[in-house]
Amino acid sequence: METRKVQVTGGSTYTVSLPKTWATDNGVSAGSIVEFYPEDDSLLLTPKGEERRTEGTLDITNLEGRELMRAVMTMYVSGFDIINLETARVTASQRRAIREAAQRLVGLEVIGETSEHIILQDLLDSSELSIINAITRMRLVALSMLNDAITALVENDDDLAQDVIERDDDVDRLWYMTSRVFRSVLRDPSTATEVGLGRESCFDYHSSARQLERIADHATKIAEHALELEEIPGEAADGLQKLLVEASDITETAMDALLEDDSERATQLANEARERVDEIDAQAREVDKLIRELDPQQAQLLGLVVDSLGRSADYGGNVAETALQKAAPKP
């Protein structure tokens, strides 16, 4: 760490010198323009550069299927605007995996391809993306998935269960977009200005988005169990529906707290959600008692459903914890 003494020039202008090593490493010299980004009591400085898109290249020779898809998604989340995928010869299966990966990511499109290269480009910029809109949409989709998964289980509706499983891609798409914006904000202060949020707020929303993505995953698991199960006894069905209502309400209340601008109101809602997480455990144990009396295979799968509902409530509680931290006074 280096320190500099602030001086006054011209009677009203504050000036401070830049460390020479930093200036040299970043191409700053006499006449260069730098940008300032205020963030609470800090002031971030960065050299002003030309508008350019970050480009990355990946050798996909030994990558296939899901591994190749994960590689594309990782480069997208890492912030590359243009992704060059190259190999001696792109196979048909590789093309399918790449296109499937692109379809799961917001804004990413194939803009060029040859027998040796495929070029992907993010057609959106950060200023067009809203983390708040993304998590609001994730909240709606994830909780509707959870509700429909239990409905499919109770009503033995395989079509609805399959629909829940397919909707998981919508939540994943928003999760990857949120992760991309979050990492960009950490890396580049200008992105924080473009999205209109500070880095702490982006962290709060990103961590909450992760909890919503996990709720959607558990809704998918419940839907998969629904496809395996036939009709379940009415008493067990009633117990599961009560657990669903409680888990959904906890998450709804926690999300309301997270998005609340009034700190006092946000704290009240977050504490309410946290207290209800403890109460749902006793409720889950009661449903478990009912399930143990059923056929062993049926009891095992329904036990997993109870576990998924309990975990979903816990994830809602995690969002409430984040809301409490967001609403707390800043040091």
UniProtKB/TrEMBL annotation:
Pfam families: MazE_antitoxin, PhoU. Residues 8-53 form the SpoVT-AbrB domain. Gene3D superfamilies: Phosphate transport system protein phou homolog 2, domain 2. Residues 263-290 form a coiled coil. Keywords: Coiled coil. PANTHER family: PHOSPHATE REGULATORY PROTEIN-LIKE PROTEIN (PTHR42930:SF6), PHOSPHATE-SPECIFIC TRANSPORT SYSTEM ACCESSORY PROTEIN PHOU (PTHR42930). This is PhoU domain-containing protein. It comes from Halomarina halobia.
